[in-house]
Amino acid sequence: MTIKKSRGAYWKNTPDISIDSRTIKKGQVFVAIKGPNFDGHNFVARAFQKGASAAIVSRGVKAPARYRSRIVRVNDTVRALGELARAHRMRFKIPVIAVTGSNGKTTTKDILAHILSARYSVLKSEASYNNRIGVPLTLLKMRGRHEAVVLEIGMNRKGEIGMLARMAAPDIAIITNIGPAHLGPLKTLGNIFRAKRELLEALGRRGTAVLNKDDRFLRGLKNAGCKKVYFGIREKCAFRAVGARKSGSGWSFGVKGIGKIRLSSPGRHNIYNTLAAIAASSLAGVSRGDIKKRVESFRMRSPKRLDLRVVAGRRVIDDTYNSNPASFKCALELLESLQSHGKKIVVSGDMLELGAASRRLHAAAGEEIAGKDFDALITLGPLSRFTASAARKKGLAFVRCASSHREAAKMLNSISERGDLVLIKGSRGMQMERVIDNL
């Protein structure tokens, strides 16, 4: 694939979009979105006062008469935002690479954008802008200077990835893995797989899928209607990590055609994320030398994602952004692999959206914790009591259940000291970073 900068000035006629009346700039179009906490329709007048050129709404709003001619009413403002984004994206003849999967989406996106930026001007999703609002907002930032786009695609329900994929029209699609995330709404791993596969349906025969061959769902993928390129560690494939071993705080491994790579990022699972990024950047025409240099210069900077830092004298692995069984297992493997002259302690909050499997999966997490050489477990949340119970039954000596973030921090303070290594993890809804704030 050859990457070329878009020509022409048509993007200059596309107005900037904002959904936040607090930060809107003069000339931007304000799209009123109704969210869980605020309804943008209540702030249309403020948006105009701050210089909005127009507003898109889905119901009647209060605004001075002089602004009413600049208000456009639609049935669904979120859908309108998506349609604007798709129309804007189709004006550009540059490659769009979309990343989805149960785990590793954000890290893969960040590594890939870092590699591509060795040669190209890259637009990538900010933070975790991976939903039906974040994806269109990213696409609407495409400008003439951009030569490639890297998007993160997430989901909460069946059909959401398909909708976002049709909007993005990707040329390359990465699926990192299929795991037990969002089991609540989707019920089974098979349904999760089918939901992730929606991304490939948007590729058609012109696009290429980059898939994890070590994943049992992805390695047997048939009738995808697109080209397929595989990465992995165990299975033979085009982009395979050979001789992977610990190297300092990171990993080293070889990849055919690229050579030995030293990865600074902790956690064995980051080898998979790196391989996916290597495969996609190779397809996008980045040289082998540039790929190696950029991978080795990459540093993880995602807050609350396996962020190792010192807090009150303890070494804390802050992985509080989110949690599911697969990512929890990765975090435990990282805790196990890191050297510590003190104790190793797990502070675990509930893993949400697991549906009927919640109790079983939380208990399995407790058994896994007890099976490793850890010193203590502190849990928070009603589901994590099953984690605590299973860990006790498996022989972990120190297990406590906290009723609040403050109490969890107090327990942690009482059993830990300077030099101890602590993993703190839980689903976003559990706000486990508050435990760190109370240390």
How does this structure look, described?
The protein has 439 residues and is an alpha/beta fold. It has 3 domains: 10-74, 3-Layer(aba) Sandwich (Udp-n-acetylmuramoylalanyl-d-glutamate--2,6- Diaminopimelate Ligase, Chain: A, domain 1); 81-297, 3-Layer(aba) Sandwich (UDP-N-acetylmuramoyl-L-alanine:D-glutamate ligase); 307-437, Protein-Tyrosine Phosphatase, Chain A (Alpha-Beta Complex). The protein contains 15 helices and 19 strands. It has helices at 44-49, 77-89, 105-116, 134-139, 160-168, 183-186, 189-201, 216-219, 269-283, 288-297, 325-337, 358-370, 384-393, 405-415, 433-437; strands spanning 17-18, 29-31, 54-57, 71-73, 96-100, 122-124, 148-152, 172-175, 208-212, 227-232, 239-247, 250-255, 259-263, 307-311, 314-319, 344-349, 376-380, 398-402, 421-425. The chain has a 9-stranded mixed beta sheet with strand order 6-7-5-8-9-10-11-12-13, sandwiched between helices. A 6-stranded mixed beta sheet has the order 14-15-19-16-17-18, with helices on both faces. A 4-stranded parallel beta sheet has the order 1-2-3-4. Helix 5 (160-168) runs parallel beside helix 7 (189-201). The protein is globular, with a radius of gyration of 23 Å. The N and C termini lie far apart (50 Å). Mean pLDDT is 92; it is low at 5-11.
